[in-house]
Amino acid sequence: MQLSKDELLRAYRMMKSIREFEERLHVEFATGEIPGFVHLYAGEEASATGVCMHLDDRDKIASNHRGHGHSIAKGCDIDAMMAEIYGKATGLCAGKGGSMHIADLGKGMMGANGIVGGGPPLVCGAALAAKQLGTGGVAVAFFGDGASNQGTTMESLNLASVWNLPAIFVVENNGYAEATSSKYSVACDDAADRASAFNMPGVVVDGHDFFAVYEAAGEAVRRAREDSAPTLIEVKINRYYGHFEGDAQTYRGKDEVKILRETKDCLDKFRDKVTSASLLEKGELDAVDADVAQIIDDSVDRAKAADKPPVSELMTDVYISY
Amino acid sequence: MARTISYQQAIGEALDQEMARDETVVIMGEDVAGGAGSPGEDDAWGGVLGVTKGLYGKYGDRVMDTPITESAFIGAAVGAATAGLRPVAELMFIDFMGVCFDQIFNQAAKFRYMFGGKAETPVVIRTMYGAGFRAAAQHSQCLYPVFTHIPGLKVVTPATPYDAKGLLIQSIRDNDPVIFCEHKALYTIEGDVPEEAYAIPFGEANVTREGDDVSIVTLGRMVHVAEEAATALEKDGISCEIVDLRTTSPMDEDTIIETVENTGRLVVLDESNPRCSIATDVAALVSQEAFSALKAPIRMVTAPHVPVPFADNLEDLYIPDSGQVQQAVRTVMGKD
Amino acid sequence: MSESIRALCMPKWGLSMKEGTVAAWLMDEGDEVSPGDEVMDVETEKISSAVESPDGGVLRRRVAEEGETLPVGAILGVLADEDASDADIDAFVEEFQANYVPPADDEEDTGTATEVVEVSGRSIRYLKRGQDGVPVILVHGFGGDLNNWLFNHEALAAKRAVYALDLPGHGSSDKDVGEGSVAALAGVLAGFLDALGIDKAHFVGHSLGGAIVLKTAIDHPGKTASLTLIGSAGLGPDINDSYLSGFISAERRKDLKPHVEQLFSDPALVTRQLINDLLAFKRIDGVQAALETIKAAFAPDGCQALIMRDEIEKLDIPILVVWGSGDQIIPVSHSEGLPSSLRVEVMGGQGHMVQMEAASEINKLIDDLIG
Fold first, then answer.
1. Which CATH entry fits the domain spanning C6-99: 2.40.50.100, 2.60.40.420, 2.40.40.10, 2.60.40.10?
2. Hey, of B113, B124, B170, which one would you mutate to test binding to chain A, going by the most A CBs within 10 A of its CB?
3. Is residue B254 in some structural domain?
4. What ipTM describes this predicted complex?
5. Which pTM was predicted?
6. Is-contact A44 A101, C-beta < 8 A?
7. In Å, how far is B70's CA from the nearest CA of chain A?
8. Mind spelling out the 3-state secondary structure of A214-238?
């Protein structure tokens, strides 16, 4: 697949934005100013980016608790996202959802989800709607190796297949479901092995390689759009941080994260590949780095300065009318 | 023009008329057509008790049989509702809510609030409840109090064919998630129902009988039990006022307070189990808001704190009956 | 047995009445009764009203007791001459009871079922009672239906055919009201006559229905034998606009009740069943839009748009105008200053629904007019 220069820059910017966002959150969370839980996506950027580069406004995604990366990749406003995580009125969800429920239905982001396995059934629904309404859209569920065991996920794979839904199921297998290894909890070697049980293709992909994800996702999106048929993609990937911020990660090996950062970083790999093939120049990528850093910086400043939601918001928007 | 049809037909008619009016209304559930992929008829069942019969023939792929995977298809109904469809999903028995409750109470109910007012989830989940069919513990419960407890859900419990049609039409047109509860023992009752489409607002109780001595606040099938009791009590000169709640969320608190202020005595009749039921909900409301109007303590008539038994004599004991209601009325009248 | 012993029976008010409850006797045994006197108050599910004696005589026996509920046609009391013996009266009552058959539950076979006719592509429901002669057409007002005439229809049908119809947007007629103006609805009324092959009729209109029949008479004088206008629109600019708006917008019982109470001189007549029936009507798809369209054409800025006082003078037919002195919807002042050729009756202490609350007087007035 030949990506244009603009598309390559867009992909890099998307991944870099996610990385900066998450790294900054890691720092800020440690100050104690951010309420609740956050679950950071740093290290997994190529997955969200490789898939979402194929999507447009017709398409919907559902995410999980580790949802900042999916949100940014689907085009959610970074300032609003940061404000939401800080629980401010200017947040994407008016401060009422927080990190785990970050959403923007207008951009087709059906929400991060606090319930493991909450997303896949919703995505079957979005795919069904696209099919019934003839929008040409597809729906993507992002979930982890933990969720790949959930009943809801299995049921959704089955339903998507029997109803011929334009759905894509992306298992981001980062080897750990909270603190428990996926080698222990997932019965088969690859989560993708399950796909054939539900009569759909199961593709395993190296999640540190943007281009590999992009290619596999491209085929899955084409299959969904043109054939109205689902696909399961298993992205083998790693997270740099804990299940949640505050997790000491004592279940991981010595220097495990350090080695991953040094040898498998998706941003480094992308940079190496495009500069050595002379598709982009180092200076262009550095400019993106600087710009993104500024954007994230500003978003944090704005989030800190913003007001909390007014107390009247406690009682609003439970129903549309009551 | 009104004519006599059954509760079941009234529900089917509401679905038909709304599907004809709005092409984004779709139906999904186990056996709602009831023949998908089978060699015989495509809509062999039309729902386990025939409520959706005929709809597949009219609306084709807008009526979808599902595999027996509640969390997937109820979740799909919820997701589709946020994406432009108006699904009416059937959760065959309310007792099955355990296998899909997350999709209802954590997803559908909370989207609008969690997403800062930006989500609209116009999903209707139709479900059968109630005892009396010897269907035993896992197919006979009245679990509407559990749904009523959840902010973000609306809960509807029609007692008559007229109410069933008008409230289902309202449910489908409503843009919030609605749990529409149909008592399985009411399916064959008949009543006057207009041919035309009409919508009954939520939170508007119906005073089905006016009286001066005691108020009986009730819902669903129990409305008919209350009527039976009231007729018997009238012969003894006790005049009962019966309030059919129609919807438990929103609930018509004004009418409940008004009837208690009118009679001063309250019996709450609820087929569900006693703890955290609609009976306790109404009784607490009245205690708090209309205490000075009460001439006697409130009596609650409910099923006992047991699962529904199978043996017919035991199930008949389980279900609150006219005799128990009369006894409770006499108690609040000080005549027992 | 004296031939002058007559039974006073439970009347049938409207289509669905099956039984009534004796609320109170208004006369005692031994009282002299004239035809039209109110002898008892009866309550039904839908309405409360007084039973008027059709005959004269002495009220010899009060058979029904206060609080008793009896089916339509059951004996309430006995009228006779003073000289009839108690034994004769006993025998009469016994024989009546022995022969009395209460109406069956599914009573549509007595010929009082409504019918439907197509008028310019719209279905119009109507009820016909009685036969022969130049027919009477009863036209209800805004938000009403043919049941508004439940105390008048049968009485008037004793001597000729009487039709009551549901206007478009009302009752069970088509909810498409077109432009919804008085003129448009008068057009439908004319079409109704044509569809049933009626050349000429006595028109009786209440409220908005009054304006409609007046307009019909103006446009089709040849079809009009006489006009009765009851609390009628079309005779002045004033109209209780907040009543119209409130009636339209109320979705719940407690919101609707205070508006409907304004219609009657006795607000106790506004029973729960009446309100429930009105709500059930308003909830039907298309009704809200129909009522809004009609109101917008009828009273676009809070005043009646079509006033026909000048034209009424030119009509060369018998005209009766009846008004309740306490009408809260259309003021009684609209009945003043009309041409002297018109017969005008103002009923003291009555409200807008005078055809229901003073039914026997109205029936008599109409009978006298029509002859």
1. 2.40.50.100
2. B113
3. yes
4. 0.89
5. 0.89
6. no
7. 8
8. HHHHHHHHHHHHHHCCCEEEEEECC
